[in-house]
Amino acid sequence: MDARRLLVFGFGYSARALSVRLQAQGWRVAGTIRRPADRARLEALGVTPVPVGNQREMQRAVREADSVLVTAAPDAQGCPGLRALVPAIARAGAFPDWIGYLSTTGVYGDRHGGWVTEQSRLAAQSTEGARRVGAERDWLEVGRGMGLTVTIFRLPGIYGPGRSALDRLRAGEARRIVAPGQVFSRIHVDDLAAGLEASIARPRAGGIYNLCDDAPCANSEVVAFAAQLLGLPAPPEVSLAQANLSPQGMRFYAESKRVSNARAKAELGWRPAYPTYREGLRAILAAGG
Description:
Blueprint: E1 5-9, H1 13-23, E2 28-33, H2 39-43, E3 47-51, H3 55-64, E4 67-70, H4 80-92, E5 98-104, E6 115-116, H5 127-146, E7 150-155, E8 157-159, H6 165-170, E9 176-178, E10 186-188, H7 189-201, E11 207-210, H8 219-230, E12 237-239, H9 247-253, E13 258-259, H10 262-268, H11 277-286
Parallel strand pairs: 1-2, 1-4, 2-3, 4-5, 5-7, 6-13, 7-11, 8-10, 9-12
């Protein structure tokens, strides 16, 4: 029996976590590259590089893929993954069993700390969020039009080994910014990968899932707990007005919401291994991260 194959458009942190899970089960993984310099990085991970600008190689990769994951952020013209993959799918006459698109919970905008589900109205407040709304719409329309099994995943802040409050504290970059009432959800990168794997096993055309942990909370709470784990004093609290954040940082703190993962649990049989940041940070530290 031939190995199953995953093609990733935009191979980064999240895709690597999924790749590790699937490769352990015998899957073969390919990932797109835009620069020749990226080839060695993917090959070192056992991932086959596919140049985006090479139509023949893109067409072959799509034809061979059982599943396709799109992680690249949209630009002013929409989703670059859609622009590259849909023509390749049409030319190859290939129909992957599953196409996953990674979006963001930013599509919900600010809910003043209230809960959102996949059925909540979309109210993006930033250009980036609005582009994600458009990319979701475009992918779902293409899925319906071409008979493709497209699934959307709305993600909050992603953390994991090498990308957590532990790393920021060690680097002296962590801050406890206090924004009264501001809370947000997060997800450990391994739980994200597990959710994608569960969806691949149960493909659903037009499916939309929030993948997040069970404990939305303030960022300052996470930093304080991480400092406790490292035996370091918690950074002093800084008000939002004193933080001197970048425009991107200010947009982040302008939104407050709690994201429900009930649908993913019910339909995919998925459960986060790290239901709160506490389990996640402890696991990262125990693994030497």
